[in-house]
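Figure 6 in text form: structure in, sequence out.
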């Protein structure tokens, strides 16, 4: 009995194991071999981050991690669930060897077996990711405020935007933020807009609006699915689901979030006048209370999924 990393032919094995192990779970969607192979051709795939348990020459379980710290549940064939603990341990050891400081897992709230497994391994509930929608016809009427300056973000703005709200973003330097917001293959650079201070023109707010009719309709997506959404502030290093009409914003620390959010939201809806978007989507973490209150006040909650976290120190 051994645990080894991914090798040729394991793609079909992984599909078979997952579809057997997860078949009875709520909202189960079978994985196809073509779908998995598309993922494996992506630039993020690293065979040394995927581990397989082999018994009698036959793989009976697997687990994996991503460089951003996300770990998978150890999926095992029925009757071979005893491999779950050693598979996760192999994953965590490999993460520590790479210098990763935190592991996290995200699964549906209605999958209690996965929740209980990670809690038993020492993971704790760190936050929820909460999904919202708002019909444009329900957009709050803007209040009469002095003229505000909202314009496309530039590369020169990246350091100031990051320092404006350093805890809001999932990146550690301005170059990463610039790359994500201005050179993203999934939305144009004009999607990121900054609200400037009237006193010194420094950014005091940032909004991101993702508009693409090829992306998912927010009213039709599964709001309990553990999917980070493209454009949501804080998900910069995550693998994301692309949703049409996705709105997100960040505000300078110490500022009142509501007027900044309303200014950016109003400007975002103006940019949608010549599109077919009728519903805005949003996603925010539960440990960002000011932003959460804004979305709770002006958007309608769809659903959420939990994030379980473990320190690797």
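Output sequence:
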């Amino acid at each position: 009995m051994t645990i080894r990393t991914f090798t040729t032919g394991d793609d079909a094995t992984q599909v078979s194991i997952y579809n057997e192990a997860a078949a009875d779970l709520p909202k189960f969607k079978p994985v196809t071999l073509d779908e998995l192979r598309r993922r494996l051709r992506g630039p993020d795939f690293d065979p040394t981050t995927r581990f397989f348990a082999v018994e009698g020459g036959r793989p009976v379980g697997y687990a994996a991690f991503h460089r951003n710290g996300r770990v998978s549940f150890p999926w095992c064939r029925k009757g071979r669930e005893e491999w779950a603990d050693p598979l996760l341990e192999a994953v965590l050891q490999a993460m520590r060897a790479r210098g990763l400081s935190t592991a996290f897992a995200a699964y549906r709230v209605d999958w209690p077996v996965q929740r209980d497994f990670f809690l038993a391994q020492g993971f704790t509930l760190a936050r929820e990711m909460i999904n919202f929608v708002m019909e444009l016809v329900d957009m709050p009427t803007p209040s009469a405020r002095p003229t505000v300056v909202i314009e496309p973000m530039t590369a020169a703005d990246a350091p100031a935007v990051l320092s404006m709200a350093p805890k809001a973003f999932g990146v550690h330097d301005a170059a990463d933020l610039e790359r994500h917001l201005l050179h993203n293959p999934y939305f144009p650079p004009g999607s990121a807009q900054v609200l400037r201070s009237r006193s010194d023109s420094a950014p005091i707010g940032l909004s991101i609006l993702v508009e693409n009719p090829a992306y998912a309709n927010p009213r039709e997506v599964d709001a309990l699915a553990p999917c980070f959404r493209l454009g949501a502030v804080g998900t910069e290093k995550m693998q994301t689901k692309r949703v049409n009409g996705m709105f997100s914003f960040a505000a300078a620390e110490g500022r009142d979030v509501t007027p900044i959010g309303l200014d950016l939201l109003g400007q975002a809806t103006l940019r949608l006048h010549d599109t077919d978007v009728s519903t805005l989507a949003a996603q925010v973490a539960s440990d960002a209370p000011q932003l959460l209150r804004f979305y709770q006040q002006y958007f309608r909650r769809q659903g959420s999924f939990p994030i379980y976290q473990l320190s690797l120190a």
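Caption detail: Residues 162 and 174 are 6 Å apart (CA to CA).
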